[in-house]
Structures are given as structure tokens and as C-alpha cells.
Amino acid sequence: MAIELGNFENKVHSKDLRLTRVFKAPRKTVFAAFTQPEHLVHWWAPKPLTVSRCEVDLRPGGEWNYTFQFPDGTGHDCKAVYRAVEPPSKLVMESSVPNPQGTPYFTILQTILFEDKGDETGVVFEMKILQANAGAEPFLEGAKQGTGMTLDNLTEYLGKI
């Protein structure tokens, strides 16, 4: 099935998603894992990708710039702009992956909610497609699986720190 292209700010896209997880770590620790480069480089990429560059300016309007590194040495630069930062309960980011000409393949709004459950943290991860352009297909087709794999990485990482 082809991915719908165009503007989806005010309508549903078939690849919008909502995932929920419970992590065996306090909310402050999970929030830090989502917001600090020294943590993000260890888990924010579906395997076999890694994060080779990670710069975070954690404030509304601040940017998070990072590079997904593929095993063959190629990479994809990614950019997020924080729309809301409410430690340790909420993050909202507008994210995109640019094509070689600098135009985004897609733009998404990611809302991440962190629920305090004592020694555990409930996380709700929502991804809303705002714009899908030519070339977005492989990214959006794999978004649900890739995000799930990335959250699995976080489970593993939190067990080590």
C-alpha cells in the first residue's frame, strides 16, 4: 500500500501511532534517558543502527540534532524542535529527516508522556504525521516497528544503569 503524501496537520494519517510501555525505573531516570545525550546515544535507534552524533538543547524552541548511523557507515541526520518541555512529565517535539537537498521527507509531532508509578514509569509515545513528502515511504512504513525496537532498547539500557 502506498503511503499517503501531503499535509496531515488536521487529519488522520494511516501511520499515526500510539505506543504505551512501562519501564522498571523511576520517572526522573526515564525522563533523563529521553533528554540527555549521554543516555540517548545508547538506545535511541532501532538495531542495527546507532546514534553517532547527539546534541540536545532542552527547552521550548531548542533543537535536538542527531545522526542515525547504518552499519555500512552511511547516516541520516535527524532534527527535532522541542515544542514543550515539562520535566519530568511531558515532551513534545516536531521532528523531521531531511533529504539530500535539505527538504524533509516528513515532519512528525511526537508527544511523550511520563507517568509516575513509583519504581516504574508508564510512557505513552504518540507520533502524528504532519507532512509526508516524496521519499517518506520507507521511514513511515517502518515507524511502528522501529519505534517499538527503540523502546525495547530503552528497556535494556535502563537495566544497565
Main beta-sheet strand count, sense and barrel state: 8 strands, antiparallel
CATH topology: Alpha-D-Glucose-1,6-Bisphosphate, Chain A, domain 4
Mean pLDDT: 94
List the uncertain runs: none
Question: What is the C-alpha radius of gyration, as a whole number of Å?
Answer: 15 Å
Basic shape: globular
Could you say which structural class the secondary elements and strand pairing correspond to?
alpha+beta
**In whole angstroms, how far apart are the ends?**
41 Å
Q: How many DSSP-defined strands? A: 8
How do the helices and strands follow one another from N- to C-terminus? EEHHEEEEEEHH
Describe this entry's structure for a reader:
The protein is α+β, with helices and mostly antiparallel strands and 161 residues long. It has a single domain, classed as Alpha-D-Glucose-1,6-Bisphosphate, Chain A, domain 4 (2-Layer Sandwich). The protein contains 4 helices and 8 strands. Strands 1, 2, 3, 4, 5, 6, 7 and 8 form an 8-stranded antiparallel β-sheet that branches. A hairpin with a 6-residue loop joins strand 3 and strand 4. The longest helix has 16 residues.
